[in-house]
Design goal:
There is one protein chain. By secondary structure, the protein is an all-alpha fold. It folds into two domains: about 20-220 and about 325-350, Citrate Synthase, domain 1; about 240-320, Cytochrome p450-Terp, domain 2 (Orthogonal Bundle). Helices cover about 55% and strands about 5% of the residues. The protein is built from 16 helices and three strands. It has helices at about 35-40, 45-55, 60-70, 80-85, 90-105, 115-140, 155-165, 170-180, 190-200, 205-215, 225-235, 240-250, 265-280, 285-305, 310-325, 330-350, and strands at about 20, 25-30, 35. The protein has a three-stranded antiparallel β-sheet. A hairpin with a 2-residue loop joins strand 2 (about 25-30) and strand 3 (about 35). The longest helix is centred in the middle third of the chain and has 26 residues, at about 115-140. The radius of gyration is 22 Å and the shape is globular. The mean pLDDT is about 95. The structure holds acetyl coenzyme *A. Acetyl coenzyme *A binds next to helix 15.
Amino acid sequence: MTAAPKGLEGVVAAETEMSFIDGEKGILEYVGIAIDDLARNSSFEETVFLLWNRKLPTKSELAAFSADLRKRYALPGDMKQRISTLPKTAQPMHVLRTMVSMLSLFDPDPNANDAASAREKALNILGYAPTIVAYFDRHRKGLPLIDPDPKLSFAANFLYMLNGEHPTPTMERAFDACMILHADHGLNNSTFTTRVVISTLSDVYSAISAAIGSLRGPLHGGANEGVMKMLNEIPSVGDVRRVVEDKLARKDKIMGFGHRVYKNYDPRATYLKTLAKKLAEDTGNVSLYEKSHAIEQIMEEKVAAKGIYPNVDFYSATTYHCIGLQLDLFTPMFALSRISGWAGHMLEQLEGNRLYRPKAEYTGPHGVAYTAIEKR
Ligand code: ACO
């Protein structure tokens, strides 16, 4: 038996009609539409509709879908009270994973995963997740919890619940664009996790909470926090070269660079770079953008020949900081958006399900005699 490539790199393990990636050319499309086009012209709600229905909605379809999502901002049962008793030191990704799992306890039929039920539960989780994150953030800061406002878009409502004031149109638009850019990305690790879990015909809550666990890792969604930590460690733009060269000499990875799939500029980073620059100028964070840009220039000189370019996380760090998000909310932001991609893949998986059950190549010994414990 030939072993599969390490990390299953290059192995086709599912069919999808949602996102297309050409890593060599730096192309990402959702249902055939270039990501840049969507980031500039669509809304997150419309993008979710596109991913779940594989077509753009008409005006009335979009209005109905958005209204349906807005009905699901308010948490069920006593979830709000439960969040307000969580340890304030808990990490938001752990809170999100645990609370998404807890949602199943308030669902009278949590295991139903026929197409209509799975879609319904996915929409619930998509609507509830921002409320979970915002409630917890205010609870840990000792601030009164702000209830969701169903008159607001997904992006505006989240920023309102988090900050207690309505975002400016620029902030709402920037956050909405970030949500679009992070919504889906082929069979990445957390999406694969979703498909693996639902392929046992387990439930939607188990599949999405497992994906949140996968996304938290520093080689996946956790990299945007790593980028911000690195930017904070660099005193000024004049120190960038020394810090980056030291890291490369120690063979440390520079967070926010490199991608298993893209060996060219990540097309999401192209849009985010422009957005980060504008937001940094608007919010007095120009030095942060300048440090990021200087890192990119040095990386271009040192490692671009290996196909290492900024990924989606690199400029999303500056963008999220400028929007006013605390560092440990960066990865939860990724999750709020990616729930849409996970859910879409889950629906696709259920449409033509086959249990994932790969093999492992055994590399241990054979025929070993059992040794009694007192003789070892
Ligand atoms: N900084 C410096 N060098 C790098 C980086 C980096 N960020 N990424 C890869 N390299 C170098 C490696 O050291 C290696 O060099 P070598 O051939 O001289 O040994 C070469 O490029 C290939 O690296 P691999 O680790 O084999 O690349 P792979 O495709 O397996 O890894 C990964 C991709 C895990 C994303 C990696 O680039 C990395 O760890 N990046 C930093 C973390 C990060 O930003 N993750 C976010 C990914 S995007 C996402 O999940 C949304």
